[in-house]
Design brief:
Protein name: N-acetyltransferase domain-containing protein
CATH superfamily: Gcn5-related N-acetyltransferase (GNAT)
Number of domains: 1
Order of helices and strands: HEEHHHEEHEE
Largest sheet: 6 strands, antiparallel
Shape: globular
CATH topology: Aminopeptidase
Number of strands: 6
CATH architecture: 3-Layer(aba) Sandwich
CATH class: Alpha Beta
Distance between the termini: 22 Å
Structural class: alpha+beta
Length: 135
């Protein structure tokens, strides 16, 4: 499917607080290599917090080969200079049972049909300005 139809407001230019320019866009199949490098560069703390699954090249290839899942939206920030993945965001609308158990163990209840899981991953803490859409 044409990305502009699936995500009409993407891609969007983003300017980091340090002036770095990136592009907010949907994750694409051809991102597997760059996405794998990104996942493998995540800190031990990030891996511990956000990794119910492996964060490596194999997982990146698996994710990039299965982007047609209607229950999940996957976005990246890509460096405007070389299109290298520098951040990742997953919005998942059908939450696996093992994840519901994990949340229950944290004292959180997940309601099917109303709740979604947002999983950010970034090797750096960043604040950015996203350009407003023009209509």
């Amino acid at each position: 499917m044409d990305e502009s139809i699936a995500h009409p407001f993407l891609p969007r230019p983003v300017t980091g607080i340090n002036g770095t320019i990136a592009t907010l866009r949907a994750l694409k199949g051809e991102d597997a290599s760059s996405f794998g490098e990104f996942l493998e560069a995540l800190s031990a703390e990030t891996r511990e917090r956000y990794s119910p699954h492996p964060l490596d090249r194999t997982e990146a290839e698996r994710i990039c080969a299965a982007l047609d899942d209607p229950a999940a939206l996957r976005f990246v920030l890509a460096d405007a200079r070389d299109d290298r993945v520098v951040a990742y965001l997953l919005a998942q609308f059908v939450i696996p049972e093992d994840e519901k158990v994990r949340y229950r163990n944290l004292g959180l209840t997940i309601e099917d049909g109303t709740d979604c899981r947002i999983a950010p991953s970034s090797p750096i803490t960043c604040r950015a300005t996203v350009s407003e859409p023009s209509f």
